[in-house]
Amino acid sequence: LDVVRAVEPRVADAIGAEIEDQRASLKLIASENYASPAVLLAMGNWLSDKYAEGTVGRRFYAGCRNVDTVESLAAEHARALFGAQHAYVQPHSGIDANLVAFWAVLSQRVESPALRRAEARHVNDLSEQEWAELRAELGNQRMLGMSLDTGGHLTHGFRPNISGKMFEQRSYGTDPATGLIDYDALRATAREFRPLILVAGYSAYPRLVNFRLMREIADEVGATLMVDMAHFAGLVAGKVLTGDFDPVPHAQIVTTTTHKSLRGPRGGMVLCDDALAEHVDRGCPMVLGGPLPHVMAAKAVAFAEARRPEFQDYARRVVDNAQALAEGLLRRGATLVTGGTDNHLVLADVSGYGLTGRQAEAALLDSGIVTNRNAVPQDPNGAWYTSGVRIGTPALTTRGLGTAEMDEVAELIDTVLRGTTARVSGGGEPSKAQYELDPALCEAIARRGADL
Ligand code: PLP
Asked: Where is this site: Plays an important role in substrate specificity (predicted)?
């Protein structure tokens, strides 16, 4: 840090403070983890200085042999790790990976002369007239994805994301009685809507998804099955999700982030079958800017780590820990969506504590417990205040916490939520944002958390 401090000490201070914060708190955000020093170091080096648009061996820039090496290695490790025919490791993030995948499916499936022209040139070179033709030919394509309030992601066709403007979208959800994906309703919607793309995958669903069944439904209606495994890629890599629950053998195209349960650098990736490979490889420059060679190097290191037997043990412990946390919370009277978990996350409905998700998230943070608020199905408090908190175990499992500690974490969470009350306004209305919590309790909980 001294090298950074000599140039801009405030940045060095922020980096140092971040390390302190991460050490002192209980990181339970389901999408976060701790990358290894090998991954971090592979990311912070001179590879960052290279431009390398194109693909391995076919670059638009000279001098890319070292970038070719790291990109090939990352792709090779990814293919072996996931048993995929093709891996494209350039996407800078999960959103970018999804855009590459959407574009690839459009490019493969939609007969469009304007698209062929666009692919042959740089998108910036298209005239207004050509863009209009492209929009007309590609427009009105349909996407069916999991609804946001039952755990889907913004990029699966929702308005706040470009995918919601690119596609006519419809959602499938969960059975209100069980909280589980209702495959019969999903099949009926797919038959009626006939989407080009059926998207499976989630950000906040605590159960397994049957990808074999999803593919069956997709085939029946002529859709391409795309699975966004951003959240659970580590569980696939670690062979906890196998058979019907491993998306790779079932989906034509699979996208992921590399920084969540997979424990790599911040970034994205697309896996696909051979038929889609040439379309996916056009991601840069069609959708992406120049690749980040230093991040591809770090992906290669992370995937090599994930191919070791220890990673399978890690993935198993992530799920054991989530189940121990779920049991600990349930035993103390908490309400969990679906009543438990099969994966790395728990979705607690905190309305039983008289709180919104926003109040619960803030009170937990005051006590050194970092979670994030999340809508629950049919949430009466909407997407901003919400009624839930999402709690995940990938990061604390990396730190070595086990099931006994998870029970203690459940105790800490329950104690904070019981000790927090919604502030009541002059008119007698409970606030959705303000709350009361004894600072001494916060301090005691934070101390105990830091000890763990
Ligand atoms: N897909 C899913 C399922 C996600 O949960 C997320 C991020 O939370 C993304 C995509 C987007 O990833 P990124 O933030 O890297 O763009």
From this structure: 259
Establish whether residue 31 lines the binding site of ligand 1, counting it when its CB lies within 6 angstroms of any ligand atom: yes
Question: What are the structure tokens assigned to 211, written together?
Answer: 């990808």
Question: In this predicted complex, what is the ipTM?
Answer: 0.98
- Ligand 1: nearest atom to the Cα of 156: 1
Strand intervals (E) in 9-59: 26-27, 54-55, 58-59
pLDDT given at position 56? 96
Which residues are the active-site residues?
51, 53, 228, 257, 260, 266
Is the Cβ atom of 374 under 6 angstroms away from ligand 1? no
Quick one: pLDDT at residue 284? 93
Residue with tokens 């937990």: 364
Quick one: which of 141, 131, 85 has its CA closest to 109?
141
Choose one of 203, 235, 257 to mutate for the ligand 1 pocket test, by most ligand atoms within 8 angstroms of C-beta: 257
| Cα 5 to ligand 1 centre (Å) | 32
Spatial neighbors of 281 by CB under 8 A, at least 6 apart, are 55, 88
Please give the model's pTM, rounded to 2 decimal places. 0.95
Rg of the chain in Å (alpha carbons): 23
Element (H, E) at 5: helix 2-7
DSSP string, 60-111: SSS--HHHHHHHHHHHHHHHHHHT-SEEE---SSHHHHHHHHHHHHHHHH--
> Six-digit token pair at 251?
């989906």
The pLDDT value recorded for residue 122 is 66
Q: Has 154 been labeled as part of a binding site? A: yes
d(CA 67, CA 75): 12
- Residue 157 is predicted with a pLDDT of 87
Query: What are the tokens at 78?
Result: 């990814």
User: At 33, is the secondary structure helix, strand, or coil?
Assistant: coil
Identify residue 186 by its one-letter amino acid code.
Answer: L
One DSSP character per residue, 297-333 reads HHHHHHHHHHTSHHHHHHHHHHHHHHHHHHHHHHHTT
Residues of the chain under the 50 pLDDT cut: none
* pLDDT the model gives residue 8: 97
Q: Does residue 153 have a known ligand-binding role?
A: yes
Closest CA to 144 of 193, 101, 210, 181: 193
Nearest C-alpha neighbor of 300 from the set 85, 45, 32, 72: 72
228 lines ligand 1 (CB under 6 A): yes
d(CA 24, CA 253): 39
Which pLDDT score is estimated for 449?
A: 94
Residue nearest to atom 2 of ligand 1 (CA): 230
Cα pseudo-dihedral 330, 336, 341, 345, rounded to 10: -110
